[in-house]
Structures are given as structure tokens and as C-alpha cells.
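Sequence, please.
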């Protein structure tokens, strides 16, 4: 009897935002990371621990990029996260006193404070401040599949004509994954699902067996797959491709998605923005810039009712399950006796950070699937059978961003960046030709140059500018990378370098400490 497999793949797009300047508030630019640790990563690990203890069947694909793993493994970041928690726990004590005569709000204050206190205990005592190690534990158990991705959040089609850039991003991403998790895995997640002609050859040359592409890449192919997105296909290089469900995550965070239900907590209505400045004086200190406090008491229309919201999360989980079950059931007459798969790709930060009840929703979905006979949770790597009998297709160049073509990653707000990073990328390739086997200071310079180029190639900066999310910070980070690379390029040309400048820059951006600049070399 054929099976119906639901493949949940949780992805992250955390950018490499690293502030090592002791004179600047470390939380600047890192609010997103710290809130994600508290609201997504710790609750997700707690959920996996609970389900493992109860023996519930769990199968999840998870993409943790090198930027996130580097930050989570950084002792300085861990220390600052604890300080971030302490600051908010102290604010919670003030809020308890301020709202002692308002029972509805007080209940929410107590809930928020209790969660922050538990986050601190879990982070320090339960997980020993090392979340990456715990994700590896669940991967070793076979509960989750950790899927490698590119070195940074690059949009590959922008560099389809520079094969060396794609090689460098794939090779560095795979090595980073092996460094953090001990193996490279079978799959590879393309940032923004950006597909371009020739990518399958690049991925296959590094031993990658499968990737996930947008449904449009499947359906707009010159010869579309006969079974649509409900079974995997393969490219001319025999790279297996899964097509993602085009309704997810819109059914979660779209204009009419679950997240918009008025019973859920409004994550934008934080006490740090809602309360008068006088009430925040102790929390903010002398800095007038408002910050999230993690104390949120309201929905869009009223005071938040946690019990009602959690009940709604259960209902929405069952609705999600039923909709996917119905979709796969309708395919059976076309698939005959073949197994069918539906790949649902969900941004990790949606669950918890953007949707407070998201992890509770995920728990109900997993439990409902475990107790039902219709859909079963599975992993991509376990759904590849008779690989060389799969239908061959030539995927159409598409993306999961924008309207399918990532137009938001290159528009009139950020297109000025492209000429600089493409020139830097071309120069980096040229440097590997000019300096084929350097050691000592020159090798350190070249490795640093490669690191700066990889960071600058990330579309985090362009996307942040497009969305108006810390645009000045994104612009300065990108410019710094380009200027640093240019300084290195000039130093190598003049054969002069300041070792103090080199050491300071190496400390400033410690990502990929093992990198070898030759990843950008032309393959013979």
C-alpha cells in the first residue's frame, strides 16, 4: 500500500551579525538573534526533548546555516545572551509591581517572566550554553535531519556565470556543516531556493544527492514532471530535486494565514514600545532607543488570553494536517501505487519569534500525525527510492523569494551593491591564480579576503535594506567587507601589510577560521 509522507523542513536565514566592539551595546543588531534563541531555538529543543522522552515519532528536516552556528558557538555571544536575559528578568520584577492591581495584565507579566527565567535555566544548566551540540544529538538519534546550506545566504543565480563563486559557497558551506555536526549529510538547501541552470552539476560534483526547489521550478520546466511536486524527480546530472508545497508557508504567515487569527499574541505590541518612556527609564537607562522587553500582553484587539490561544493552535495544527492529507489523497488516482510526498518548508523564526504559539502548533501537528493513520512524517533522505528511475527534468530558474524571481533581492534600493561584490568576487578568483600556494602572512591575507567576499556575497544586507530593517547597519557592514577586501587586494599588489590591522580584522570576523582561499580557484 502506498504511503503519504509529510516532509517538514524548517529553515533559518540568520545573517552574520557579529559585534565585538565593547564600546557599543552588543544587542544592537542582535535583537533578532537573541529573541530567536528564546522564542524559537530553546523551545524547539525543549519540544524535541519532550517528544523523545515520550517516544513520539518525530521526523524533521532542519537547516542551520554557518552564520547561526558560528554565533551560537561564540562564547561572547553566549555571555551577552545571558546578560540580555538578566536585563529583561529585572524589568519583569518592575512590571510585577506596576501591574499588581490589574489581574489580566498581571497574569501575562507572570507568564512572560516565568518563561525568561526558564530560558536562562535551560540555556545554562540544561544545554550548557551550547545549542549546536544539542541539535547534533537529535540528528545522531535520527529524530531530525540537519541539511547543509551555502556558506552565507547568497542568491546563487546572481553568480550563475561565475562558477567559482558557486563552488566556494557550496564547498565552504559543506565544510562548515561538517565542522559543527561531524558529517555533510545527503542534501543541500539553496538559500532562497534560488535555482539556476548548471547548479545541479556544481552540487553533484560535491557529492550532494538532493535539494529542494520551488514548485514553479518543477511546474514550469520544459518537460514538467508527470507526477508534479508529489514525487521527487532528477536533473540531467541525476541530482534528486523535491518540489516544495506552494501553499506553505503562506497558510501559516500569509495575509490570511493562521498567524493572523486575532486570538494570538501580537508580537509587535511589546511593552518596550507600548509603555510611556517614564515606565521604561530603568530598562533603557540613558539610551533613548526603544528595545523589545519580551513582555507582551496584548493581541491586536484585546488583552492576551494564553489558554484560548493555545487551544486555537491545536485547532490550526489539525486544519493544516487535514489540508495536506486532502491534497495528497487527491493525487492517488494519478500516482497509482507510488508513494507520495509533500515538502512543506517553514522559516524557523516564524515558529516562536513571529508567531508566539508556533512551537505549540508544531507540537500538536507532530502529535496529530503520530496518532493518525493518514500522513506520516518523514525525512527527504528517506524518500529517495530507485533514484536512477526517477523522471528527468530541467528545472526552470525560480526562487521562493518575491513573486518567484527574487526581485526583492535586487531592486532600486539595493542594486548598487551588485557591481561591487561581483568585481570583488572576480578579483578573488584572480588572486587564487596569482598566488597559487602561499603560506604565512600572505596566506592569512588571502584567507581573510575570501572570508570578506563570502560575507559580502550574502543577500542578508540587500534584503535588510529592501525591508528597511536596520538598513544603515546593513549598508555599513557591506561597505566594510568591500573596503576590507580592497585593502587586502592593494596590500598584496604592493607587498605591504600592517600585521596589527590584519590581526584586528581576523578577530572582528571569526567566522570560517579554517577557510582556505583556494576554494575560489578555478577547478582544473
Amino acid at each position: 500500500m502506498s504511503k503519504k509522507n509529510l516532509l517538514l523542513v524548517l529553515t533559518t536565514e540568520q545573517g552574520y551579525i557579529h559585534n565585538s566592539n565593547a564600546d557599543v551595546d552588543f544587542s544592537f543588531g542582535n535583537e533578532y538573534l537573541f529573541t530567536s534563541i528564546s522564542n524559537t531555538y530553546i523551545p524547539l529543543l525543549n519540544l524535541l526533548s519532550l517528544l523523545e522522552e515520550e517516544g513520539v515519532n518525530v521526523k524533521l528536516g532542519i537547516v542551520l546555516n554557518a552564520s547561526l552556528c558560528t554565533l551560537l558557538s561564540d562564547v561572547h555571544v553566549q555571555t551577552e545572551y545571558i546578560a540580555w536575559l538578566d536585563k529583561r528578568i529585572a524589568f519583569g520584577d518592575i512590571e510585577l509591581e506596576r501591574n499588581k492591581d490589574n489581574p489580566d495584565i498581571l497574569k501575562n507579566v507572570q507568564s512572560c517572566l516565568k518563561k525568561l527565567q526558564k530560558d536562562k535555566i535551560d540555556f545554562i544548566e540544561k544545554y550548557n550554553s551550547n545549542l549546536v551540540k544539542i541539535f547534533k544529538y537529535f540528528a545522531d538519534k535520527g529524530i531530525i535531519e540537519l541539511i547543509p546550506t551555502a556558506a552565507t545566504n547568497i542568491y546563487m543565480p546572481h553568480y550563475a556565470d561565475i562558477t567559482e563563486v558557486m563552488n566556494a559557497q557550496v564547498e565552504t558551506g559543506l565544510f562548515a556543516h561538517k565542522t559543527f555536526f561531524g558529517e555533510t549529510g545527503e542534501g543541500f538547501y539553496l538559500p532562497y531556493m534560488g535555482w539556476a541552470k548548471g547548479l545541479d552539476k556544481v552540487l553533484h560534483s560535491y557529492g550532494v544527492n538532493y535539494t529542494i526547489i520551488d514548485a514553479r521550478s518543477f511546474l514550469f520546466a520544459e518537460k514538467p514532471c508527470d507526477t508534479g511536486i508529489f514525487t521527487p524527480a532528477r536533473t540531467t546530472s541525476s541530482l534528486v530535486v523535491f518540489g516544495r508545497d506552494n501553499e506553505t508557508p503562506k497558510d501559516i504567515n500569509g495575509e490570511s494565514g493562521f498567524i493572523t487569527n486575532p486570538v494570538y499574541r501580537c508580537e509587535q505590541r511589546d511593552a518596550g514600545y507600548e509603555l510611556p518612556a517614564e515606565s521604561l527609564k530603568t530598562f533603557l537607562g540613558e539610551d533613548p532607543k526603544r528595545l523589545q522587553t519580551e513582555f507582551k500582553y496584548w493581541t491586536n484587539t484585546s488583552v492576551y488570553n494564553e489558554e484560548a490561544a493555545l487551544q486555537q493552535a491545536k485547532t490550526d495544527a489539525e486544519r493544516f494536517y487535514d489540508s495536506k492529507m486532502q491534497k495528497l489523497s487527491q493525487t492517488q488516482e494519478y500516482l497509482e501505487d507510488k508513494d507520495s510526498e509533500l515538502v512543506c518548508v517553514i522559516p524557523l523564526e516564524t515558529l516562536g519569534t513571529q508567531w508566539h504559539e508556533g512551537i505549540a502548533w508544531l507540537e500538536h501537528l507532530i502529535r496529530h500525525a503520530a496518532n493518525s493513520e493518514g500522513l506520516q512524517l518523514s525525512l527527504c533522505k528517506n524518500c529517495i527510492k530507485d533514484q536512477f528511475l526517477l523522471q528527468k527534468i530541467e528545472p526552470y530558474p525560480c526562487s521562493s523569494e518575491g513573486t518567484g524571481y527574487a526581485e526583492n533581492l535586487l531592486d532600486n534600493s539595493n542594486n548598487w551593491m551588485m557591481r561591487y561584490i561581483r568585481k570583488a568576487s572576480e578579483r578573488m578568483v584572480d588572486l587564487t591564480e596569482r598566488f597559487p600556494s602561499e603560506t604565512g602572512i600572505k596566506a592569512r591575507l588571502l584567507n581573510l579576503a575570501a572570508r570578506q567576499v563570502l560575507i559580502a556575497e550574502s543577500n542578508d544586507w540587500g534584503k535588510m535594506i529592501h525591508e528597511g530593517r536596520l538598513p544603515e547597519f546593513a549598508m555599513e557592514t557591506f561597505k566594510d567587507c568591500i573596503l576590507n577586501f580592497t585593502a587586502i587586494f592593494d596590500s598584496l599588489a604592493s607587498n605591504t601589510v600592517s600585521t596589527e590591522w590584519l590581526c584586528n580584522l581576523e578577530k572582528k570576523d571569526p567566522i570560517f577560521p579554517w577557510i582556505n582561499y583556494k576554494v575560489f580557484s578555478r577547478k582544473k
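The first strand starts at residue 4 and ends at 11.
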